[in-house]
Protein backbone atom coordinates (compact mmCIF):
# COMPACT_ATOMS: atom_id res chain seq x y z
CA UNK A 1 0.00 0.00 0.00
CA UNK A 2 1.29 3.42 -0.89
CA UNK A 3 1.95 5.49 2.18
CA UNK A 4 0.91 9.15 2.44
CA UNK A 5 3.69 11.52 1.50
CA UNK A 6 4.16 14.03 4.35
CA UNK A 7 5.89 16.40 1.95
CA UNK A 8 2.90 16.56 -0.40
CA UNK A 9 0.44 16.90 2.49
CA UNK A 10 2.47 19.80 3.81
CA UNK A 11 2.64 21.47 0.41
CA UNK A 12 -1.10 21.30 -0.16
CA UNK A 13 -1.82 22.75 3.27
CA UNK A 14 0.69 25.54 2.84
CA UNK A 15 0.24 26.59 -0.75
CA UNK A 16 -3.39 25.90 -1.69
CA UNK A 17 -6.29 28.23 -0.96
CA UNK A 18 -9.50 26.91 0.56
CA UNK A 19 -10.90 26.38 -2.96
CA UNK A 20 -8.01 24.06 -3.85
CA UNK A 21 -6.24 26.54 -6.14
CA UNK A 22 -2.60 27.61 -5.78
CA UNK A 23 -2.10 31.02 -4.23
CA UNK A 24 0.01 32.30 -7.14
CA UNK A 25 -2.52 34.50 -8.96
CA UNK A 26 -1.17 37.97 -8.07
CA UNK A 27 2.43 37.13 -8.94
CA UNK A 28 1.54 35.30 -12.15
CA UNK A 29 -0.60 38.16 -13.39
CA UNK A 30 2.25 40.59 -12.88
CA UNK A 31 4.35 38.70 -15.37
CA UNK A 32 2.86 35.70 -17.08
CA UNK A 33 5.26 34.50 -19.78
CA UNK A 34 4.06 32.58 -22.78
CA UNK A 35 4.15 28.92 -21.93
CA UNK A 36 6.38 28.36 -24.95
CA UNK A 37 9.24 30.16 -23.21
CA UNK A 38 9.11 27.64 -20.35
CA UNK A 39 9.10 24.52 -22.50
CA UNK A 40 12.03 22.09 -22.56
CA UNK A 41 11.80 20.85 -26.16
CA UNK A 42 14.49 18.15 -26.12
CA UNK A 43 13.33 15.29 -23.88
CA UNK A 44 13.52 11.49 -24.12
CA UNK A 45 10.78 10.20 -26.43
CA UNK A 46 9.96 6.57 -27.22
CA UNK A 47 7.24 4.40 -28.72
CA UNK A 48 5.02 2.07 -26.68
CA UNK A 49 7.10 -0.90 -27.91
CA UNK A 50 10.47 0.59 -26.98
CA UNK A 51 12.30 -1.65 -24.44
CA UNK A 52 12.71 -0.24 -20.96
CA UNK A 53 16.50 -0.35 -21.24
CA UNK A 54 16.44 1.90 -24.31
CA UNK A 55 14.29 4.42 -22.43
CA UNK A 56 16.72 4.41 -19.52
CA UNK A 57 19.66 4.87 -21.88
CA UNK A 58 18.04 8.05 -23.18
CA UNK A 59 17.12 9.25 -19.69
CA UNK A 60 20.75 8.70 -18.70
CA UNK A 61 22.21 10.49 -21.73
CA UNK A 62 19.86 13.47 -21.38
CA UNK A 63 19.91 13.47 -17.56
CA UNK A 64 16.12 13.45 -17.49
CA UNK A 65 13.82 11.65 -15.08
CA UNK A 66 11.10 10.61 -17.55
CA UNK A 67 10.41 9.45 -21.08
CA UNK A 68 7.40 10.64 -23.04
CA UNK A 69 5.75 7.75 -24.87
CA UNK A 70 4.36 8.76 -28.26
CA UNK A 71 2.17 6.69 -30.57
CA UNK A 72 1.16 7.87 -34.08
CA UNK A 73 2.35 11.38 -33.23
CA UNK A 74 0.26 11.68 -30.06
CA UNK A 75 1.25 11.42 -26.40
CA UNK A 76 0.23 7.94 -25.23
CA UNK A 77 1.88 7.82 -21.82
CA UNK A 78 4.66 8.91 -19.52
CA UNK A 79 7.36 6.62 -18.14
CA UNK A 80 8.87 8.17 -15.03
CA UNK A 81 11.66 7.21 -12.69
CA UNK A 82 9.07 6.16 -10.12
CA UNK A 83 7.47 3.75 -12.60
CA UNK A 84 10.88 2.14 -13.06
CA UNK A 85 11.58 2.06 -9.31
CA UNK A 86 8.19 0.45 -8.66
CA UNK A 87 8.95 -2.25 -11.21
CA UNK A 88 12.58 -2.94 -10.26
CA UNK A 89 11.81 -3.57 -6.62
CA UNK A 90 10.02 -0.70 -4.98
CA UNK A 91 6.39 -1.63 -5.40
CA UNK A 92 3.67 -3.98 -6.53
CA UNK A 93 4.95 -4.32 -10.10
CA UNK A 94 8.04 -6.13 -8.86
CA UNK A 95 5.98 -9.32 -9.13
CA UNK A 96 6.34 -9.03 -12.93
CA UNK A 97 10.11 -9.22 -12.50
CA UNK A 98 9.82 -12.37 -10.40
CA UNK A 99 6.86 -14.20 -11.91
CA UNK A 100 7.32 -13.45 -15.61
CA UNK A 101 11.08 -13.12 -15.97
CA UNK A 102 12.40 -15.08 -12.99
CA UNK A 103 14.55 -12.09 -12.12
CA UNK A 104 16.67 -12.42 -15.30
CA UNK A 105 18.16 -8.96 -15.55
CA UNK A 106 18.40 -8.93 -19.34
CA UNK A 107 14.80 -10.01 -19.85
CA UNK A 108 13.59 -7.64 -17.13
CA UNK A 109 14.84 -4.60 -19.03
CA UNK A 110 13.43 -5.82 -22.33
CA UNK A 111 9.85 -5.16 -21.21
CA UNK A 112 8.00 -2.73 -23.55
CA UNK A 113 7.57 0.76 -22.13
CA UNK A 114 3.80 0.58 -22.57
CA UNK A 115 3.56 -2.02 -19.81
CA UNK A 116 5.01 0.33 -17.21
CA UNK A 117 4.03 3.81 -18.42
CA UNK A 118 1.32 5.93 -16.85
CA UNK A 119 -1.49 6.12 -19.38
CA UNK A 120 -3.71 8.82 -17.92
CA UNK A 121 -1.27 11.59 -18.72
CA UNK A 122 -2.17 15.11 -17.70
CA UNK A 123 -0.99 17.58 -20.31
CA UNK A 124 -1.47 21.20 -21.33
CA UNK A 125 -1.47 23.05 -24.62
CA UNK A 126 0.97 25.73 -25.69
CA UNK A 127 -1.90 28.22 -25.53
CA UNK A 128 -2.67 27.41 -21.87
CA UNK A 129 -1.63 29.68 -19.02
CA UNK A 130 1.14 29.17 -16.52
CA UNK A 131 -1.51 29.42 -13.83
CA UNK A 132 -3.10 26.22 -15.15
CA UNK A 133 0.26 24.44 -15.12
CA UNK A 134 0.94 25.51 -11.54
CA UNK A 135 -2.52 24.41 -10.44
CA UNK A 136 -1.84 20.92 -11.80
CA UNK A 137 1.63 20.79 -10.29
CA UNK A 138 0.54 21.81 -6.82
CA UNK A 139 -2.89 20.21 -6.50
CA UNK A 140 -1.89 16.88 -8.07
CA UNK A 141 1.79 16.76 -7.20
CA UNK A 142 3.19 16.72 -10.74
CA UNK A 143 6.73 17.94 -11.32
CA UNK A 144 6.69 17.50 -15.08
CA UNK A 145 3.86 18.18 -17.52
CA UNK A 146 3.91 17.48 -21.31
CA UNK A 147 2.91 20.37 -23.57
CA UNK A 148 1.13 19.84 -26.88
CA UNK A 149 1.54 22.05 -29.95
CA UNK A 150 -1.49 23.30 -31.95
CA UNK A 151 -1.54 20.13 -34.05
CA UNK A 152 -1.66 17.89 -30.94
CA UNK A 153 1.95 16.77 -31.19
CA UNK A 154 4.51 16.97 -28.39
CA UNK A 155 6.10 20.41 -28.09
CA UNK A 156 8.11 19.45 -25.01
CA UNK A 157 7.57 19.55 -21.26
CA UNK A 158 7.36 22.14 -18.51
CA UNK A 159 9.12 21.28 -15.26
CA UNK A 160 9.58 22.89 -11.89
CA UNK A 161 13.15 23.61 -12.93
CA UNK A 162 12.17 25.43 -16.13
CA UNK A 163 9.75 27.60 -14.14
CA UNK A 164 12.44 28.41 -11.56
CA UNK A 165 14.82 29.50 -14.31
CA UNK A 166 12.16 31.70 -15.93
CA UNK A 167 11.45 33.48 -12.66
CA UNK A 168 15.00 33.45 -11.30
CA UNK A 169 15.02 37.26 -11.36
CA UNK A 170 12.62 37.18 -8.43
CA UNK A 171 15.00 35.24 -6.22
CA UNK A 172 15.55 37.20 -3.05
CA UNK A 173 17.97 37.23 -0.16
CA UNK A 174 15.73 35.31 2.22
CA UNK A 175 17.58 32.51 4.05
CA UNK A 176 17.32 28.91 2.94
CA UNK A 177 15.69 28.07 6.28
CA UNK A 178 12.50 29.83 5.12
CA UNK A 179 12.26 27.68 2.00
CA UNK A 180 13.61 24.26 2.92
CA UNK A 181 11.54 21.19 3.70
CA UNK A 182 12.32 20.21 7.27
CA UNK A 183 10.62 16.80 7.16
CA UNK A 184 13.30 14.86 5.27
CA UNK A 185 12.88 11.22 4.28
CA UNK A 186 16.21 9.56 5.15
CA UNK A 187 17.73 6.09 5.31
CA UNK A 188 20.64 4.53 7.15
CA UNK A 189 23.92 4.20 5.28
CA UNK A 190 23.73 0.40 5.36
CA UNK A 191 20.45 0.37 3.41
CA UNK A 192 20.22 -1.85 0.34
CA UNK A 193 19.01 -0.69 -3.05
CA UNK A 194 15.86 -2.71 -2.42
CA UNK A 195 15.11 -0.66 0.69
CA UNK A 196 15.82 2.58 -1.16
CA UNK A 197 13.54 1.72 -4.08
CA UNK A 198 10.74 0.81 -1.69
CA UNK A 199 11.17 4.01 0.28
CA UNK A 200 11.22 6.19 -2.83
CA UNK A 201 8.07 4.59 -4.20
CA UNK A 202 6.10 4.50 -0.96
CA UNK A 203 6.97 8.07 0.02
CA UNK A 204 6.99 9.57 -3.47
CA UNK A 205 10.47 11.10 -3.25
CA UNK A 206 13.39 11.15 -5.68
CA UNK A 207 16.23 11.93 -3.27
CA UNK A 208 17.15 10.22 -0.02
CA UNK A 209 19.99 11.37 2.27
CA UNK A 210 21.88 8.49 3.89
CA UNK A 211 22.84 8.90 7.53
CA UNK A 212 25.46 7.15 9.63
CA UNK A 213 24.69 5.61 13.02
CA UNK A 214 25.52 8.94 14.68
CA UNK A 215 23.21 10.79 12.24
CA UNK A 216 25.99 12.26 10.11
CA UNK A 217 25.31 12.76 6.42
CA UNK A 218 27.03 10.02 4.44
CA UNK A 219 25.73 10.94 1.00
CA UNK A 220 22.57 11.32 -1.06
CA UNK A 221 21.15 8.70 -3.37
CA UNK A 222 18.91 10.14 -6.07
CA UNK A 223 16.91 9.25 -9.15
CA UNK A 224 19.80 10.48 -11.29
CA UNK A 225 22.31 8.05 -9.78
CA UNK A 226 19.94 5.12 -10.13
CA UNK A 227 19.01 5.97 -13.72
CA UNK A 228 22.70 6.29 -14.55
CA UNK A 229 23.41 2.91 -12.94
CA UNK A 230 21.07 1.21 -15.40
CA UNK A 231 21.22 3.52 -18.40
CA UNK A 232 25.03 3.40 -18.54
CA UNK A 233 24.94 -0.44 -18.43
CA UNK A 234 27.07 -0.42 -15.28
CA UNK A 235 24.41 -2.60 -13.72
CA UNK A 236 25.38 -5.54 -15.97
CA UNK A 237 28.98 -5.37 -14.79
CA UNK A 238 28.04 -5.33 -11.11
CA UNK A 239 25.50 -8.13 -11.16
CA UNK A 240 27.48 -11.09 -12.47
CA UNK A 241 24.70 -13.54 -11.57
CA UNK A 242 22.34 -11.84 -13.99
CA UNK A 243 19.59 -11.67 -11.36
CA UNK A 244 17.76 -8.52 -10.31
CA UNK A 245 17.49 -9.96 -6.80
CA UNK A 246 21.27 -9.61 -6.46
CA UNK A 247 21.11 -6.02 -7.70
CA UNK A 248 18.69 -5.21 -4.90
CA UNK A 249 21.14 -6.55 -2.30
CA UNK A 250 23.80 -3.97 -3.21
CA UNK A 251 24.55 -1.21 -0.73
CA UNK A 252 22.95 2.12 -1.58
CA UNK A 253 25.92 4.05 -0.21
CA UNK A 254 28.00 2.83 -3.15
CA UNK A 255 25.74 4.75 -5.55
CA UNK A 256 25.40 8.12 -3.89
CA UNK A 257 25.78 11.29 -5.95
CA UNK A 258 29.40 12.17 -6.66
CA UNK A 259 28.65 15.83 -6.06
CA UNK A 260 26.30 17.10 -3.36
CA UNK A 261 25.51 20.76 -2.70
CA UNK A 262 25.51 21.40 1.05
CA UNK A 263 24.39 24.75 2.45
CA UNK A 264 23.62 26.23 5.85
CA UNK A 265 20.18 27.44 6.97
CA UNK A 266 21.41 31.03 6.78
CA UNK A 267 22.62 30.75 3.16
CA UNK A 268 20.80 33.34 1.00
CA UNK A 269 18.43 31.77 -1.50
CA UNK A 270 20.03 33.65 -4.38
CA UNK A 271 23.39 32.05 -3.55
CA UNK A 272 21.80 28.62 -3.38
CA UNK A 273 20.19 29.04 -6.79
CA UNK A 274 23.41 30.26 -8.36
CA UNK A 275 25.29 27.22 -7.07
CA UNK A 276 22.55 24.83 -8.18
CA UNK A 277 22.62 26.26 -11.71
CA UNK A 278 26.42 26.09 -11.86
CA UNK A 279 26.51 22.46 -10.69
CA UNK A 280 23.43 21.44 -12.71
CA UNK A 281 21.73 20.07 -9.60
CA UNK A 282 18.04 20.06 -8.71
CA UNK A 283 18.39 19.97 -4.94
CA UNK A 284 20.59 20.99 -2.01
CA UNK A 285 21.07 19.55 1.47
CA UNK A 286 20.85 21.87 4.46
CA UNK A 287 23.27 21.08 7.28
CA UNK A 288 24.02 22.94 10.51
CA UNK A 289 26.60 21.84 13.08
CA UNK A 290 27.08 18.63 11.05
CA UNK A 291 23.39 17.81 11.53
CA UNK A 292 20.87 17.44 8.71
CA UNK A 293 18.30 20.24 8.97
CA UNK A 294 16.43 20.02 5.70
CA UNK A 295 16.40 19.67 1.95
CA UNK A 296 15.69 22.24 -0.75
CA UNK A 297 14.38 21.16 -4.14
CA UNK A 298 13.32 23.02 -7.26
CA UNK A 299 9.73 22.70 -6.07
CA UNK A 300 10.53 24.47 -2.79
CA UNK A 301 12.22 27.25 -4.72
CA UNK A 302 9.36 27.53 -7.22
CA UNK A 303 6.89 28.02 -4.38
CA UNK A 304 9.10 30.59 -2.72
CA UNK A 305 9.53 32.65 -5.88
CA UNK A 306 5.90 32.59 -6.93
CA UNK A 307 4.52 33.44 -3.51
CA UNK A 308 7.08 36.09 -2.58
Low-confidence stretches: none
Mean pLDDT: 89
Oligomer: single chain
Distance between the termini: 37 Å
Spatial order of the strands forming the largest sheet: 1-2-3
Q: How does the helix and strand content classify structurally?
A: alpha/beta
Separate helix tally: 14
Radius of gyration (Å): 19 Å
Q: What is the total tally of β strands?
A: 12
Q: Major sheet, described briefly?
A: 3 strands, mixed
CATH class of the domain at 176-307 reads Alpha Beta
Main features:
single chain, 308 residues, alpha/beta, CBS-domain, 3-stranded mixed sheet, 14 helices
Detailed description of the structure:
There is one protein chain. The chain has 308 residues and is an alpha/beta fold. The protein is built from 14 helices and twelve strands. It has helices spanning 6-15, 25-30, 52-62, 81-90, 94-99, 105-108, 130-140, 160-166, 193-203, 223-231, 234-238, 244-247, 269-279, 298-307; strands at residues 45-46, 66-71, 74-80, 124-125, 144-148, 154-159, 187-188, 207-211, 217-222, 262-263, 283-288, 291-297. A three-stranded mixed β-sheet has the order 1-2-3. The protein has a three-stranded mixed β-sheet with strand order 4-5-6. A three-stranded mixed β-sheet has the order 7-8-9. A hairpin with a 2-residue loop joins strand 11 (283-288) and strand 12. The longest helix has 11 residues, at 52-62. It is flat and about 55 Å long.
Amino acid sequence: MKLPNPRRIYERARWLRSDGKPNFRAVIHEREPELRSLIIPKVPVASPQTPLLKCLEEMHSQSFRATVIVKAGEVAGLLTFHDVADYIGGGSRFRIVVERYGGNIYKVFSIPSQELMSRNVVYVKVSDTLEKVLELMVSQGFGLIPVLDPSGGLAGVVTEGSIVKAFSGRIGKKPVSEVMTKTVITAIEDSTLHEIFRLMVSMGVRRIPLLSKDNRLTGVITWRGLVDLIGSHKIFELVSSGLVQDLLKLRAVDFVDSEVLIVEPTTPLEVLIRDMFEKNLDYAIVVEDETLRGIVTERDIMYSILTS
